[in-house]
Write a structure and sequence with these properties.
about 160 residues; alpha+beta; Arc Repressor Mutant, subunit A; Alpha-Beta Plaits; 4 strands
C-alpha cells in the first residue's frame, strides 16, 4: 500500500461525505486536474484504501422489520473453530456484521430479519446447530445509529 499525502486524505474525506461525487467535483476539492484526480482515486481503489462505494437503504422499505444482536460463545477457541464460525455467519444473508471479541462473549452477530419468527428460526437453524457454538444470547435492537464516516488518523506525508 502506498503512503497517503494531504491530497489523498482530502479525497478520502470528500468521498466519505458523499461517495457519488464526480471526478470533477473531487478535482475542485483537491486542487488537481480531473485526470490527476481520476488517477489518484483509481490508485486508492487499487491499493485497497477505498474498498467500495455503498448505497444506504431504508430497512423497512426492503422488508426488514427487526434487527438483533446475537452474542455467541464458542465451545472451543481454536483458530479453526473461530474461522469456521465467522465464515458461516458471514455466509448468511441476514447477517449484517460479525465482530470477534475478547472476553466471555466470542462474537457479536448483527442480524436483520423480517420479524421475531424469522429471528427464532435463524437462531435455531443457523446457530444452535453448529458444533462450535456453546451458547447464544439474543438482544433485539431498538435503534441502530452508526457513524457515516471513519475518522482519518493517517498522517499525511509531507508534499
Amino acid at each position: 500500500m502506498s503512503t497517503l499525502d494531504r491530497t489523498d486524505l482530502a479525497l478520502l474525506g470528500a468521498l466519505q461525505e458523499d461517495g457519488r461525487r464526480t471526478i470533477k467535483e473531487l478535482a475542485a476539492i483537491a486542487g488537481l486536474s480531473t485526470s490527476a484526480t481520476h488517477e489518484r482515486v483509481r490508485r486508492l481503489q487499487a491499493d485497497g484504501v477505498i474498498s467500495g462505494i455503498h448505497a444506504a437503504l431504508d430497512p423497512e422499505a426492503i422488508g426488514i422489520g427487526l434487527q438483533a444482536v446475537i452474542q455467541v460463545s464458542l465451545q472451543r477457541h481454536s483458530r479453526d473453530a473461530v474461522i469456521a464460525f465467522r465464515d458461516h455467519a458471514m455466509s448468511l444473508e441476514e447477517v449484517l456484521a460479525v465482530t470477534h471479541l475478547t472476553g466471555a462473549i466470542d462474537f457479536l452477530v448483527h442480524v436483520a430479519v423480517r420479524d421475531t419468527d424469522h429471528l427464532r428460526d435463524l437462531a435455531l437453524e443457523a446457530f444452535t446447530t453448529r458444533d462450535e457454538v456453546a451458547r447464544l444470547d439474543t438482544s433485539v435492537v431498538y435503534e441502530h445509529v452508526g457513524a457515516r464516516t471513519w475518522p482519518i488518523y493517517a498522517v499525511a506525508d509531507p508534499v
